[in-house]
Specification:
750 residues; Purple Acid Phosphatase, chain A, domain 2; four-stranded parallel β-sheet; two-stranded antiparallel ribbon
Length: 750
């Protein structure tokens, strides 16, 4: 029989947290299985010392346990600080039994005996007795089992390096979250220069992140240079990157930091060895004091100096901590036993130590209300060190003062655990939101984007998603870069396809420009003609043909349209001057309109509303059938007419939309006074207004898709947007009706 141990398997068969993303972990589960079964026999035992699975529940854990159960040997597992699936012993044993995992056992405040050996497990380290006031009898150990468990590192450990490790891990996690991402390689170099000046306090996680950022930026530059080389006609296999002086500087700085940190680690190890020798010397001196046979009261001052020296001597090699502490406290206890004749000193010491430990308890209890949970956890580490370094209190108070301090520590540890669990949940929620945004962009149907407006509307949607992305916090660290790369790729793909579309559209616009220039030349050739009827018909056909030609580039559209319409206007102005004989008809029309105005003025306000509404519409229809009036009288008659119409509409509550449309119909004759080209210009203007309003309506409707009424503010904004949408739809319908009126007038002229 052999006994093996392994830790940090980090299995994820039931979750999406593969360790393969990290260097050296590729296909690690298969490699682990092959090597495990090659070394371990069924009669052997394997202790798996924590961080077994990334699962959050038993359902996610089942596949990971099935993998472990099928490996050779009997497995004894302990809880790690990442084993969030760990539950009560009864629930875990039930889970193991129900699933037939017969090679797996739980080690927790228990032990397993085989072949003269025992494997024991507890929930953490215990302080030693007397100087730390922690009882060592079995009854008190049984009481320990009832203490609330926390998944983070237990702060009651006397191990200096253990505390240091936990602090470093937490600090690294916080710094990783808070550290800004360098935008350029120069930013990376500047930060490395700062870290090189203070290498002993440099955070390894930050250094790794800077290295990752540098080479991501470096590789991006190489890809851009390679792409430029290929675009310029070069072959990909012939591309040779230029020497990068920043990379040489980067390697130099990293080497400097690495060397300094290595020296620091070596110095720390040397210091630990020196501290070890100091503490061994202190123990020997304590032993001499105890075994000398001298009066202990006379040696008390020397004893206190040795205690102070012990407390001032800090870290020692990890493997020597517990043995040193047991020997030290052994001789401390023996010395105090010798102080039977001088209780005054002993009682004074006890009283002083009680005051210190009471103060430490109060400080630990206040940490439960500390707003910064991580800071509270770090402060608690220091309080534990002080508690440990403080001497004993009276025997009858030891349990009480220790239990008080332990209860305060448990509360802080629990908040620390809950903080990071909440942080993980928040990051997972952010990942879910970002995944949905990626899916939206990836699901765009490019085949349906066939017009300029369609692409512009979809562009606004993508920009809105990009802005929303910026409001979402970090995703889990191992997925944060991946999900961003996915989103960036989707956006890049969209804008690439948009560029291809507009490139093709530009080519079509160039063709349209040439067609419109040809129409301009034809119109300019006809503008001086005096064959009024034939030329007017010819120009009207040219105007109709103009409408069938698609758009041109914005920078040319106004100029080419002005050229075309100027030629048309010139001809029709000349035609109007030559056909002024219609003046008598205009005078007759003026008299008809005056008579109609009198009829409108005579409508009685007591008339039935429906009857009055019908009469007003008939008179308005009659007004629209009357032709042009003399130009000097036009505005006066128009003002009188519309003044009466407004009064009647208000009096009989006729709809505003009908009012606007009726006004437009009455005004159409004035527009016609400038000839059919005036109608075409008015129609072009209304079409542009219609397109602008339609785009505005699309924007409002898109915004409605991103808003919810989950808050009071959101509900009011949603109501306002819906009101604007309804108004725009009504306005759009009115513009369409006006266009129909113009089309009817143009058709009548034909």
């Amino acid at each position: 029989m052999s006994l093996f141990a392994i830790a940090d398997t980090h299995l994820s068969f039931g979750t999406d947290k593969p360790m393969d993303t990290f260097e050296g972990w590729s296909n690690y589960t298969q490699r682990l299985k092959e090597n495990w079964n090659k070394i371990v026999d069924d009669k052997d035992y394997v202790v798996i010392a924590g961080d077994i699975s990334w699962a959050m529940s038993f359902s996610e854990l089942e596949a990971d346990f099935d993998y472990i159960n099928k490996l050779n040997g009997k497995k004894i597992i302990l809880k790690g600080n990442h084993d969030y699936w760990w539950n009560t012993m009864s629930k875990m044993n039930k889970f193991i039994e129900e699933n037939g995992f017969d090679t797996i056992s739980i080690l927790h405040n228990s032990s397993y005996d085989f072949d003269g050996f025992s494997v024991c497990g507890s929930r953490g380290w215990f302080f030693d007795s007397d100087d730390t006031n922690l009882p060592l009898n079995q009854g008190e150990l049984e009481e320990e089992k009832k203490t609330v468990e926390v998944s983070e590192a237990i702060t009651e450990t006397p191990t200096e390096e253990g505390t240091e490790k936990v602090t470093e891990e937490v600090t690294a996690e916080v710094q990783t979250e808070a550290a800004p991402k360098p935008a350029t390689k120069e930013d990376v170099l500047n930060r490395l220069k700062e870290l090189a000046q203070d290498s002993e306090n440099a955070n390894k996680q930050e250094i790794d992140n800077l290295k990752q950022s540098f080479y991501k930026l470096h590789n991006a530059e190489l890809e851009a240079a390679k792409k430029q080389f290929i675009d310029n006609g070069g072959a990909a296999e012939d591309f040779t990157p230029k020497d990068d002086p920043t990379e040489e500087e980067f390697k130099r700085l990293m080497g400097s930091i690495k060397e300094k940190r290595s020296q620091l680690v070596a110095e720390q190890e040397r210091q630990k060895e020196e501290n070890l020798q100091v503490k061994l010397s202190i123990i020997e001196e304590l032993k001499e004091l105890v075994e000398s046979g001298d009066d202990a009261n006379k040696s008390y001052t020397e004893f206190k100096k040795l205690q102070q020296q012990w407390n001032e001597t800090k870290l020692v090699p990890q493997g020597k901590v517990n043995e040193l502490w047991k020997n030290y406290q052994l001789y401390v206890e023996k010395f105090y036993d010798l102080l039977k004749l001088n209780n005054e000193f002993r009682e004074y010491d006890f009283k002083k130590n009680l005051e210190i430990k009471t103060h430490l308890c109060e400080a630990a209890e206040k940490l439960a209300d500390e707003e910064d949970v991580v800071s509270a956890f770090h402060q608690l580490q220091k309080l534990h060190q002080e508690f440990r370094d403080t001497g004993p209190v009276a025997k009858e108070l030891r349990d009480e003062i220790w239990n008080r301090f332990k209860a305060a520590s448990t509360a802080v540890n629990r908040r620390h655990q809950q903080h990071f669990e909440a942080l993980k949940e928040s990051e997972q929620h952010n990942l879910d939101q970002k995944t949905v945004i990626c899916e939206i962009v990836e699901a765009i149907e490019y085949d349906e984007l066939k017009t300029f407006s369609a692409w512009e509307n979809k562009t606004q949607e993508v920009i809105a998603l990009q802005n929303k992305w910026k409001t979402i916090g970090f995703a889990p660290q191992k997925m944060n870069v991946k999900i961003f790369e996915r989103f960036r790729h989707a956006c890049d793909d969209f804008f690439k396809k948009k560029g291809e579309f507009f490139k093709a559209l530009k080519e079509g616009m160039n063709e349209n420009l040439e067609k419109k220039k040809a129409l301009c030349e034809k119109a300019e050739a006809l503008k001086d003609s005096t064959d009024w009827k034939a030329t007017a018909d010819a120009l009207t056909k040219l105007q109709k043909e103009w409408k069938t030609i698609g758009p041109v580039a914005k920078k040319y559209s106004d100029a080419v349209w002005k050229r075309f319409i100027t030629a048309c206007d010139y001809f029709f102005d000349q035609k109007n001057k030559a056909t002024s004989s219609q003046r008598s008809v205009e005078i007759e029309n003026m008299e008809k309109k005056k008579a109609l105005i009198e009829k409108l003025a005579s409508i009685d306000e007591n008339m039935d509303t429906d009857e009055a509404s019908t009469l007003v519409r008939e008179l308005m229809k009659e007004w629209n059938t009357i032709g042009h009036v003399p130009f000097k009288e036009k505005d006066k008659l128009y003002k009188q007419y519309h003044g009466l119409i407004d009064q009647l509409f208000d009096r009989f509550n006729i709809s505003a939309s009908n009012k606007k449309l009726s006004n437009f119909r009455s005004n159409i004759s004035n527009i016609q006074g400038g000839g059919s080209q005036s109608l075409y210009r008015e129609r072009e203007k209304l079409v542009r207004i219609y397109e602008n309003m339609k785009n505005e309506l699309q924007t409002y409707e898109n915004n409605l898709g991103f808003l919810t009424s989950s808050s009071k503010k959101g509900s009011s904004l949603l109501t306002e947007l819906n009101r604007k949408v309804d108004k725009l739809k009504a306005d759009l319908e009115l513009v369409l009706q006006k266009i129909k009126v113009i089309d009817e007038s143009l058709k009548a002229e034909e």
